[in-house]
Design a protein that fits this description.
Elements: H1 7-28, H2 41-52, E1 55-60, E2 63-68, H3 71-80, H4 92-96, H5 111-124, H6 127-132, H7 134-150, E3 155-157, H8 158-175, H9 196-209, H10 215-218, H11 230-259, H12 268-276, H13 287-318, H14 320-333, H15 349-361, E4 371-372, E5 377-379, E6 382-384, E7 389-392, H16 394-397, H17 442-459, E8 460-463, E9 490-495
Parallel strand pairs: 2-7
Antiparallel strand pairs: 1-2, 3-9, 4-7, 5-6, 8-9
Helix pairs in contact: 7-8, 8-13, 9-11, 11-13, 13-15, 13-17
Keywords: Heme, Iron, Membrane, Metal-binding, Monooxygenase, Oxidoreductase, Transmembrane, Transmembrane helix
Binding site for heme: 439
Pfam family, one: p450
Length: 506
């Protein structure tokens, strides 16, 4: 009897390898090809919606994908039938970068997710909690302004400064100290297992991989081949992330044990640990849950603000007259002898309009995180079967000429005197989504984004490096879970306030 491989196994292996070679060649081929979905899926689907309308069904491998690309469709998916579409598809990203769907973004709709959402609303992002951390945000923005002042007159990579700001704010609020940019008082603590630059690269990779169209997510039986190499990268970034989160939790749990009944939360991880110890929880939280929630807080809070502020300054460099109007408002309301505090933001409608216009033209998440139908639903007369994946293309909504005059133009004035918020109530503008699964940390994001834009414009005049014309500025984006600039912005900052204003301690 021959105990070698059967012909079926041999043929299957050969077929799988042959298929892998063909698909990989198609994926990597650089010549133009007639694919409906290109490297920027939100733009491809935008073009399709202009031809086929605001409600489309696409077929991604084994799964039907229903796309809503209008205000009315967004309202039906995210409000009218919100519970029916509150599910999440199980993707490789959710598995390998979110502790097997344990975070808030990728966890399935149910008791676990509802408990996590309640924790965010009542504990982590309540107005009381955010107000208690205002001194941290203020201090870190001062550090940003000082770093820009030190680099004044020279071309600088703005995203680096903005990411450092975001990481420092989030690190101090969530983790209790600057893990990745320590000050003297932090030096006594054990260093984290990743460097600052490694952590920044990890965050960029995390957002890219959580938004890619992985072939195995659409054709599950091909997943083991990892035809695009995405799963390998997801596993690698997941391991790096886990090393860091283990370090953080071990430190916090050790302090919790040491202090015993005298334990008092100092940061959001402490709040999470205390929450997990509550004996009345409907669903018990384990260490993976705590790491997954902490990852959401760090990644979400860092990426959205840095990306949005970079886009804002890039647009303003192309429209100096708008930057001039912003400076005039700041001088009139704030004066030239102080920085902008959060309490003053409500008195700066033009700065708020710049923020909203940036979020309209460059939504951080151009297609909201995919949802999944939990039951059969009829939408606009069409049957949407349970299990269908749902995409809401905010990129198309924000460019709808029936809503926005000259939709491709950066015009903050369109928001002056127009009652429209970015908190999920007005479906014309949904940078954070809407309904049950909208971003729970949007209130923090708004504070950091608006305060950053206001202070950056108040403290500095901005220009492009010598020899670079505004019309030459690259405004292409990269598609992922977020939508950053493809070519990072390089600009020159020149101080515009009295010199003593910049003499700030960190």
């Amino acid at each position: 009897m021959d105990f070698g491989a059967s012909p079926w196994v041999t043929y299957s292996t050969i077929f799988a390898l042959f298929l892998a070679i063909i698909v990989r060649a198609m994926t990597n081929h650089r010549r133009r090809r007639p694919n409906l979905i290109g490297a920027l899926p939100h733009r491809s689907i935008h073009e399709l919606s202009k031809k086929y309308g605001p409600l489309m069904k696409l077929q991604f491998g084994s799964f039907p994908v229903v796309v809503g690309s209008s205000v009315s469709m967004a309202r039906l998916f995210l409000k009218t039938h919100d519970p029916a579409f509150a599910g999440r598809p199980k993707t490789a990203a959710g598995n390998y970068t979110a502790y097997n769907y344990s975070d808030i973004t990728w966890s399935q709709y149910g008791p676990y997710w509802r408990q996590a959402r309640k924790m965010c609303i009542t504990e982590l992002f309540s107005p009381r909690s955010l107000d208690s951390y205002e001194h941290i945000r203020s201090a870190e923005i001062r550090r940003l302004l000082r770093s820009l002042f030190d680099a004044a007159g020279r071309p600088l990579l703005l995203k680096d400064h903005l990411t450092t700001l975001s990481l420092s704010v989030i690190s101090r609020m969530v983790l209790g100290r600057r893990y990745l940019d320590p000050t003297a008082e932090d030096q006594a603590a054990p260093p984290p297992p990743v460097s600052t630059e490694e952590f920044k690269r990890m965050l960029d990779e995390l957002f890219l991989l959580n938004g890619v169209l992985n072939i195995g997510d659409s054709i599950p039986w091909l997943n083991f081949l990892d035809l695009q190499g995405y799963i390998r990268r997801m596993k690698a970034v997941g391991k790096t992330l886990d090393r860091f989160m283990e370090h953080v939790l071990d430190e916090h749990i050790a302090r919790r044990v040491k202090e015993g009944e005298n334990f008092s939360p100092r940061d959001m991880v402490d709040v999470l640990i205390q929450f997990a110890e509550n004996p009345t929880l409907n669903v018990k939280l384990n260490k993976s849950s705590l790491k997954a929630f902490s990852k959401d807080l760090i990644a979400g809070g860092t990426e959205s603000s840095a990306v949005t502020v970079e886009w804002a300054i890039a647009e303003l460099l192309r429209k100096p007259d708008i930057m001039k109007k912003a400076a005039e408002e700041l001088d009139r309301v704030i004066g030239r002898e102080r920085w902008v505090e959060e309490k003053s933001l409500q008195d700066l409608p033009y700065i708020e309009a710049i923020m909203k216009e940036t979020m309209r033209l460059h939504p951080v998440v151009p297609m909201l995180v995919p949802r999944q139908a939990r039951e059969d639903v009829v939408i606009d007369g069409y049957d949407i079967p349970a299990g269908s994946r749902i995409l809401v293309n905010t990129f198309t909504i924000s460019r709808d000429p029936s809503i926005w005059e000259e939709p491709d133009e950066f015009r903050p004035e369109r928001f002056l005197g127009r009652e429209m918020d970015v908190k999920g109530h007005d479906f014309e503008l949904l940078p954070f989504g809407s309904g049950r699964r909208m971003c729970p940390g949007y209130t923090l994001g708004l504070r950091v984004i608006q305060s950053s834009i206001a202070n950056i414009l108040h403290g500095f005049s901005w220009r492009l490096p010598d020899g670079v014309k505004a019309e030459e500025l690259n405004m292409d984006e990269i598609f992922g879970l977020s939508n950053p600039k493809k070519v990072p912005l390089v600009a020159v900052a020149e101080p515009r306030l009295p010199i003593q204003i910049y003499n700030m301690s960190s």
